[in-house]
Sequence to fold (376 residues):
Amino acid sequence: MIQFINVSKAYKEHNVIENINLEINKGELVVLIGPSGCGKTTILKMINRLIEPSDGQIKINGTDIEAQDPIELRRNIGYVIQQTGLFIHMTVRENIEIIPRLAKMPVSEIVDRTVKLMETVGLPEEFLDRYPNHLSGGQQQRVGVARAFAMNPDIILMDEPFSALDPLTRSQLQDELVSLQSKLHKTIVFVTHDMDEAVKIADRICILQGGRILQYDTPENILKNPAHGFVSEFVGSKRIWSSPQLICAKDIMITSPKTTYPYVPMFKGLEKMRIDKVDSLIVIDEDNHLLGIVRARSILNSADKSLPVETVMTPARVTADTEENIVSLLEKINGLNISNIPVTDRDNRLAGLITNSSLVTTMSHQFIGVKGGAGA
Ligand SMILES: Nc1ncnc2c1ncn2[C@@H]1O[C@H](COP(=O)(O)OP(=O)(O)OP(=O)(O)O)[C@@H](O)[C@H]1O
Ligand SMILES: [Mg+2]
Fold:
């Protein structure tokens, strides 16, 4: 775990990092994002002691890094930067192996590992004898990533590693990083300017402005509840719609739908609909389990309205799970003429109801650009 405790950095009295507290868990991929000059690179370089804080403490696994030898410290911290930092007069192999060789790792181990690393980052082994400037930008960046992993460090720092690449290559490398991370579970601190990139790869995103942390949370929570006007502006009010898989049923359902019990006489059910101004009720049992739906139309069509509502109750054609995302939901109702979707938890207990209007209202709010949650 990496901990920043009341850390500040000043250059000539001018604070560029203002008393930040930040915890990055082991195995977590945290993205630092914010406008140019907000202090992202400074924070990153304080972790491997390329920059020393003016105040406060940084701990890795509980140990203050100030007490550690910087060279030793950096052996356990891979570092990837935008301009790759590859040595152009060295081959790909020499670039990847330089630190393990300096660290006097057994040569046979190094050689085996290099071959594996090339495979991991998706480069053919023949490239090992090439020089970096005979590779494309994306390929060079892959070598940069391989080199960062060469010492099998627990921590990897990445400073805008993909920002010089074309969008397609960039997107590919993002996917590969996510897949690599799901296997290796490194602790990764990744700097970017690009919110789409952050949302795609991060476990948590730390939004910075002027050397301060504005919000530190999961991509989902940041998109849904931006903690600050600046964050919501930075994130963009329509941003969530580029990640609709993050919106789920529980976000758009009404939480107190009108319900009735199966044994209630129809005429009472009808009365309830009139009072509540709805044309159907959800039928539940005493434990709130979903049983079905009863419609005003069915009651009006039945001769004996003293019979219980369960006589005319129909099962819900479509139901949603509370965590089900909006994309899957829209696919389910696509083509069906459905106005109400009961939302249930894992035990089939009624959690809420999605109505046509709650769906439409949520979507139009987003598309028309009503600023949501821009408090503080
Ligand atoms: N050696 C230095 N002396 C004085 N000021 C510095 C020094 N290094 C960085 N700064 C200032 O510290 C602030 C933070 O710099 P930093 O490089 O961390 O920003 P950043 O968020 O990484 O920006 P970018 O997105 O442009 O890379 C900037 O205002 C910068 O001008
Ligand atoms: Mg920077």
Remarks:
- Confidence is low (pLDDT under 50) at residues 368-376.
- The longest helix spans residues 167-184.
- Residues 40-41, 159 surround magnesium ion (ligand 2) (CB under 6 Å).
